[in-house]
From TrEMBL:
Protein name (database record): Sodium/proline symporter
Localization (cell): Cell inner membrane; Cell membrane
GO annotations of cellular component type: plasma membrane
PROSITE patterns in UniProt: NA_SOLUT_SYMP_2 (PS00457), NA_SOLUT_SYMP_3 (PS50283)
Length: 486
């Protein structure tokens, strides 16, 4: 690797650690500060933090790779996600921000559900916390696998400290994320996400523009049109099932704990501004990702290049089109996408372990300082579990990312929406929806129905969970747990 690229990457790592130290001084005195930044997050920070923790490496690797390989028809996934994000910011965000304060100043999603339905508090906290910790350990491992593969293909030649290039990448990514997350807590994660979100969107806008101006707009269009008649078609080869499965990705937003926790942390009255900033960032980032895939395909075709893995088109363009310093910046954007999601997942997992296990079962009267330190320890424990899972690059962890998104979306999505908006919902209905949603997704995957029908598992899981909550709540409508929405 050229010296300029290494310098740029080193500067990025130092910046992330510096932000962690800054946050350590500002917001780690108590649990609310460590887990939610004192509920005083600036709208811009909350918005970009939600976006950066959401998109991960999928935005710079997965979506451009899908466009590169298949064509414009893959854009429906991005459209579905954007529509889901719009509904999430308008329906869930303001209600969750208000109600988590009103119902006992809840610091985690399981704690809010327990306070909302006190008759089933323990069941809701335990079941939801188990789902969060297990799925996020795997989710975090998937991010570390991405970091390992990035280092393996780009950053490191030969051995490093006796480790393979892949494992060195896993360890380096984990150590940096672990350092600023453990030290600075939620504020550090949110501030680093803000910086990472800025880097990501600049990279996604810059890269396709360089290709378009370098190769010529008309030449790029002609090259894409020559690939196949359907390559630039929105509906080429798309079935009804395929369309529904693509746009159904948007259903997952309502149940992603690492995203909706940002709504809980934004300062009072800041949701409208955060919504505008967040959706604007997301729209530009998604268009940029589409541009990387399409413009990258044209560049490869026009210049006779070879690309074995479509998902590495971003890396190929970064290495071949730019000055080493700019390459370092662009690769830092890819690391930013990976690290922003890992840090958010580690912290949410830690908050569930501390608030929904340690304080609930082990030490109810733990001091605030003790809870912060336990939270740091839990971050480290989840990170170690993720490293262990990620140590085998062939473990199939990456294939579970879509399943984890569906699992969270089906288990928590209907539960969160209805708990915030439907006054007749009961605790029994809440537990039923949580269990049915997660079980349906797992059964759909285990039986191979997703592969045989082409239906993304979030669709049956979301519908089943919604019906379970509705029907069971109606059946237990006289339950004393039924309370009015405040």
């Amino acid at each position: 690797m050229q010296t300029g690229t290494l310098i740029a990457l080193a500067a990025y790592f130092i910046l992330m650690l510096g932000i962690g130290l800054f946050a350590w001084k500002r917001s780690t005195a108590d649990s609310e500060g460590y887990l939610l930044g004192g509920r005083n997050l600036h709208p811009a920070v909350a918005a970009l933090s939600a976006g950066a923790s959401d998109m991960s490496g999928w935005l710079l690797l997965g979506l451009p790779g899908a466009l590169y390989a298949t064509g414009l028809v893959e854009a429906w996934i991005g459209i579905g996600l954007f529509v889901g994000a719009v509904i999430n910011w308008w329906v869930v965000a303001p209600r969750l921000r208000r109600q988590t304060v009103e119902y006992g100043n809840a610091l985690t999603i399981p704690q809010f559900l327990a306070n909302r339905f006190p008759g089933k508090a323990t069941a809701l906290r335990v079941v939801s916390a188990i789902i969060i910790v297990v799925f996020f350990a795997v989710y975090s491992a998937a991010g570390l696998v991405g970091g390992g593969k990035l280092f393996e293909s780009t950053f490191i030649d030969g051995q490093m400290l006796g480790l393979s290039p892949y494992m060195a990448g896993v360890i380096i990514t984990a150590v940096v994320v672990l350092a600023y997350t453990m030290v600075g807590g939620f504020l550090a994660v949110s501030l680093t996400d803000f910086v990472q979100g800025c880097i990501m969107v600049i990279a996604l806008v810059l890269m396709p523009l360089v290709v378009l101006f370098g190769d010529g707009w008309g030449n790029v269009g002609n090259a894409l049109a020559d690939i196949s008649p359907d390559y630039l078609s929105w509906f080429g080869g798309l079935t009804v099932v395929g369309f529904l499965s693509a746009v159904a990705w948007g259903l997952g937003y309502f149940g992603q704990p690492h995203i909706i926790v940002r709504f809980m942390a934004v300062r009072d009255g800041g949701i409208p501004a955060a919504r505008t900033i967040g959706l604007s960032w997301m729209l530009v980032a998604l268009i940029g990702a589409l541009g990387v895939g399409l413009a990258g395909r044209a560049h490869v075709e026009m210049n006779g290049l070879t690309l074995e893995d479509p998902e590495t088109i971003f890396i190929l363009l970064a290495n071949t089109l730019f000055h080493p310093f700019v390459t370092g910046f662009l690769l830092a954007a890819l690391l930013a996408a990976i690290m922003s999601t890992i840090s958010s997942q580690l912290l949410v997992s830690s908050s569930s372990l501390t608030e929904d296990f340690y304080r609930l079962f082990l030490k109810k009267d733990a001091s605030e300082r003790e809870m912060v330190n336990v939270g740091r320890l839990c971050v480290a424990l989840v990170a170690l579990a993720a490293i262990a899972i990620a140590s085998d690059p062939e473990s199939g962890v990456l294939s579970l990312v879509a399943n984890a998104w569906a699992g969270f979306g089906a288990a928590f999505g209907p539960l969160i929406i209805l708990s915030l908006t439907w006054k007749r919902m009961t605790g029994v209905g809440a537990v039923s929806g949580l269990v049915v949603g997660a079980a349906t997704v797992m059964a759909w995957i285990a039986t191979g129905l997703g592969a045989s029908t082409g239906v993304y598992e979030i669709i049956p899981g979301f519908v089943a969970a919604w019906l379970a909550i509705w029907l069971v709540s109606l059946a237990t409508a006289t339950d004393a747990e039924t309370i009015s929405i405040r």
